[in-house]
Amino acid sequence: MTDLARWLSAQTQDDTLAGVILSMAGAGAEIAGVLQQAPIAGQTGPAGATNVQGEAQKALDIISNDIVLNHLRQNPHVSILVSEELDEAVEMSSQGGFIVATDPLDGSSNLDVNVTVGTIFSVLPAAGGPLQAGRVQCAAGYVAYGPATSLVVRIAGDTSVFTLDGAGTWRLTLAAARVPEATGEFAINTARERFWDAATRGYVHESVAGETGAAGKRYNMRWVGSMVADIHRILMRGGIFLYPLDSETAAKGGRLRLLYEANPMAWLMEGAGGRSSTGRQDILDVAPTAIHQRVPVILGSAEEVRRVEDWYRRG
Ligand code: AHG
Ligand code: MN
Ligand code: MN
Ligand code: MN
Asked: Does Magnesium count among this protein's keywords (predicted)?
């Protein structure tokens, strides 16, 4: 029995849930192979189409979406698929017990510069439909296509990390990820400062002031521009990721998507002792009203997320 299969059998008695995770892991392994050859195959460019998000789709956005569709269509336990790249939710199996929401290729603006990208997925109980709060997720995970190909997954317990070996097997490389409570590293797109609200501005300025300011400690800054890459760094060594509400994204509710970016990452963070917030409420408590709904995302080291929430409480 492989590491992933053994881990799944220890984490859940529900073989159908385990099967959905295995389907997404299979899709990830296939996407990894495609990405590694993409520059040779000339696939790193635009698709010439625009998705429901209003983004210019990359060819690999569509290829990755098709690979996820193919793997999930072979699984009778998936009732609905919600995807960043599909305008509407897709009906899959009529007897499926689970809904999958996916960002088939996250960070795709980085494809032509060979930076880590990923596939993110959230698994919900089918009974409540796609618009359920993240708190009720059955599982969540992502595949990070980096120097190594990592699968990060959580059902209800620990958030664990697997690495794809040369034979295409997922090997357990970290049984329980733990996000350090405190951090000195923040991740935000500082080019957006002119759009920030007072809370974001206050927090970032206090952090940049380092030991000379109220924070009383030195900070470092990292921003990859690929959520999976930034989150994986935070999951492995701590940090805080911020894509907060700002004056430009406010009309849409934020930049990042609730069902297939914020909720799965919040679920994984919770499993590793991290914290997730919109700034004003726990991301996992946000009640979705639309499948492509956007939310502000602040997540990572719990003490640091609380520091940002304190800035929001100051009004
Ligand atoms: P996607 O490629 O799935 O559309 O997601 C891109 C997101 C996320 O990965 C990243 O954190 C964010 O876009 C970066 O936004 P900026 O380009 O505004 O920094
Ligand atoms: Mn996109
Ligand atoms: Mn994304
Ligand atoms: Mn995407």
From this structure: yes
